[in-house]
Amino acid sequence: LTILGIESSCDDTAAALVRLDGGAAAVLASVVHGQTMLHADFGGVVPEIAARAHAEKLDIAVREALARARLTLAGVDAVAVTAGPGLIGGVLSGVMCAKGIAAGAGLPLIGVNHLAGHALTPRLTDAVAFPYLVLLVSGGHCQFLIVRGPEDFARLGGTIDDAPGEAFDKTARLLGLPQPGGPSVEREAATGDTSRLRFPRPLLDRPGCDMSFSGLKTALLRARDQIVAEKFGLTRQDRADLCAGFQAAVCDVLAEKTRRALSLYMAEAPAAPLIAVAGGVAANGPIRAALTDVAAEAGARFLAPPLELCTDNAAMIAYAGAELYAQGHRDDMTLAARPRWPLDSASPAMLGSGK
Ligand code: ATP
Ligand code: FE
């Protein structure tokens, strides 16, 4: 079974081919065209610019993926596409492109939830059995999911405001460090003192797995301004200490909430307990280390897929599409693009063209 995957829900135009052979999955090709340069002057992704760039680049990405996999559409069994959630112009571009290919080549069409793509990635890279726990932690998302099947997710909690990646990016902006903020802040934090500036650990005093990261940004702004007022500027060390204090707070919050999510998950008595991370923030060394420790404490295996499959890509969409296809799932030309699509709700097909 060979599936073409298409992803365009945020600022990456991606196409991939994934082959499913019995239980084993292989990525034949995965093409990602980022748009960072296009949005660099605006301090964030501009939806209209993103949509136009997707519309221009999608067929190029598909062609490139087919060429790299040495395939034509004749060797493809189905087309899977991100049908939401995301920036609607981008999602629409991808869905229209996929419908065109499906209609033109007479292939089945499968609408995939972008978050399901992230959540199923551990099964693309490793022989992981249901149920497993996933912490999805990226620029736009932060949530714990028990993955019980390709369409069966239980959300245990998540951020009530910003995602951690967003907080890293804002921190970098406030300190004049380059974007994306995650890697810059991590680099600075490496030489910083985590004990000099104490940042809050939001919501740790409340039960459950919900998190909040927007207050951290305000705390960082205040700490920065106080140092600037006292010393008329920031030294390299001040910046490093601010980054270290901020990163330590994010680490502590993620670690404690993961501990709680793990105990809820372990109550289901999984045969082979496993927690996996997905999303760009999973690249962070100290966060990975903290999660590894928490998993070991709970007696669960910790899995971090390769980074290029953790950040937005189309291989995860093709793979999720393959799992849905294997379950008999098919969409048709009424497949709707959805800006919002919570993972633990029905699929667009079940909702009738997504209304
Ligand atoms: P989505 O939320 O839809 O998955 P996204 O593009 O916002 O998409 P990703 O591509 O998964 O998210 O990840 C990008 C985010 O990950 C950015 O916010 C970036 O700062 C963060 N990030 C990348 N590397 C690191 C790191 N080493 N430490 C912390 N954060 C990081
Ligand atoms: Fe994503």
From TrEMBL:
Its cofactor is Fe(2+). Its EC number is 2.3.1.234. InterPro entries: ATPase_NBD (IPR043129), Gcp-like_dom (IPR000905), KAE1/TsaD (IPR017861), TsaD (IPR022450). Binds 1 Fe(2+) ion per subunit. Keywords: Acyltransferase, Cytoplasm, Iron, Metal-binding, Transferase, tRNA processing. It catalyses: L-threonylcarbamoyladenylate + adenosine(37) in tRNA = N(6)-L-threonylcarbamoyladenosine(37) in tRNA + AMP + H(+). SUPFAM superfamilies: Actin-like ATPase domain. Fe cation binds at H114, H118, D312. It is an enzyme of class 2 (transferase). The keyword Acyltransferase applies. Substrate binds at L136, V137, S138, G139, G140, D169, G182, E186, N284. Belongs to the KAE1 / TsaD family. Required for the formation of a threonylcarbamoyl group on adenosine at position 37 (t(6)A37) in tRNAs that read codons beginning with adenine. Is involved in the transfer of the threonylcarbamoyl moiety of threonylcarbamoyl-AMP (TC-AMP) to the N6 group of A37, together with TsaE and TsaB. TsaD likely plays a direct catalytic role in this reaction. This is tRNA N6-adenosine threonylcarbamoyltransferase. It comes from Roseovarius ramblicola. The gene is tsaD.
